[in-house]
Design goal:
With about 160 residues, the chain is α/β, with parallel strands linked by helices. The protein has two domains: about 120 residues, 3-Layer(aba) Sandwich (Rossmann fold); about 35 residues, no CATH class. Helix 2 packs across helix 3. The longest helix is centred in the middle third of the chain and has 16 residues.
Length: about 160
């Protein structure tokens, strides 16, 4: 998340934050100094991404997912079915910029597009051609930086 005053929370595109967490946090009441959200390689729900990963491993999701869900409950103390970035996106009150690599074969690009459509605040989306999972910044650093800087200028009303 981007802060207007004080020390900002930084974003390192080479070590992206978990976008579903960012979107879910942004759907809550935020401090006044949070002026925007950057989500890279987002997915709609924890369940959906886990099902996707299980399928990619060549395993039957209907059989494996209940064990993954049980493991999350027993060892992590949370229910995978309770987390939805789509629900949170409908409550976000600050601008959001979504990034995703067009060639992402881990988290399909359509998942970010779903989150983008669900988001009711001001929003922008940048799909990076030929970029795989979590490498949009590396594939098109100038384009990525330009989008981020334009976003910051637009919503911070500052010359940066």
């Amino acid at each position: 998340m981007i802060h207007r005053n004080g020390l900002p929370l930084t974003y390192n595109p080479r070590l992206p934050d978990l976008p579903v967490t960012v979107l879910m946090a942004a759907g809550k009441q935020l401090p006044k100094n949070v002026i925007g959200v950057l989500a890279d390689c987002g997915f709609p729900t924890a369940r959906e991404i886990m099902m996707q990963v299980i399928r990619q491993m060549g395993l039957p999701p209907a059989l494996v997912y209940p064990f993954v869900k049980l493991g999350a409950k027993l060892y992590g103390g949370f229910d995978l079915d309770q987390f939805s970035a789509l629900e949170a996106a409908a409550h976000i009150q600050v601008p959001v910029i979504f990034f995703h690599g067009e060639a992402d074969d881990f988290v399909p690009c359509r998942m970010t597009e779903e989150a983008y459509k669900a988001c009711t605040s001001e929003k922008e989306m940048y799909i990076v051609e030929d970029a795989g999972h979590a490498v949009s910044y590396l594939v098109n650093t100038p384009g990525y930086r330009k989008r981020v800087m334009d976003f910051l200028r637009k919503y911070m009303n500052k010359d940066i």
